[in-house]
Amino acid sequence: MLEYQLIRSKRRKTLSLQVRHGHVTVRAPHYISSAFIDTFIQEKNAWLRTKLAEQQEALEFCDFTQGSSLLFLGEQLTLNICSAKQSTVFIDSPLVSEVELYSDYKPSLRQLNVVISERVSAKLTEPLVRAKRVKKLLETYFKQQAEQLFIERLELLSNQTSLIPTKVTVRQYRARWGSCNNRGELSLNYLLIMAPVFVIDYVIIHELCHLEHLNHSKSFWKLVEQYCPNYQIAKKWLKTHQSQLHWQNLR
Ligand SMILES: [Zn+2]
Question: How far does residue 3's CA lie from ligand 1's centre (Å)?
Fold first, then answer.
């Protein structure tokens, strides 16, 4: 049974349902029994769950404002926007005690700090302009982090598979995670830095295997599976998180 808030009123003649900010409110005439309302909720169960899920997804959509959240290496981080002399972006270090306490530690408390320089910050009075600035700083940061990590992983995986690209670029893509052409040049989307390392590894292996098969044939997938046995889990992760993995355009 879903939890809901019940508001009764003498003047009301009909039952009404409202879902807002992840909460369900029922407004009912004073003479209607609780059992009747429970049945009503039960009947609307599927609709309510869909509504709640939609709102949850909207919550996960980052608009680059204070308190919104972003994924980084599979970890949900909360945006903390502040200003100081120098602009910089950094992530809080993990709380050691918690890391040690819980084996499946998923820190939701860590912050992704975006520091805007005081000089610039004073000029960013318009919220949308401010959000754009935050996004820009994050793009630069994510790209730097991606370049470093992807090259590191690529070297390792290249050694393991003996599949060696002629050139590697980390860049922005609209709708793909990587690419590989017939000249053996490999590109990776820097926003992939939002995914956990095992997912990043899968995408790298996927592209490396294209050096052998420039298609998605059975033999291609067989090769992927050989080097990345859990690739189905990685593919699934990308699918379930796709709404969070694409940054919205700020207009
Ligand atoms: Zn492919």
Answer: 45
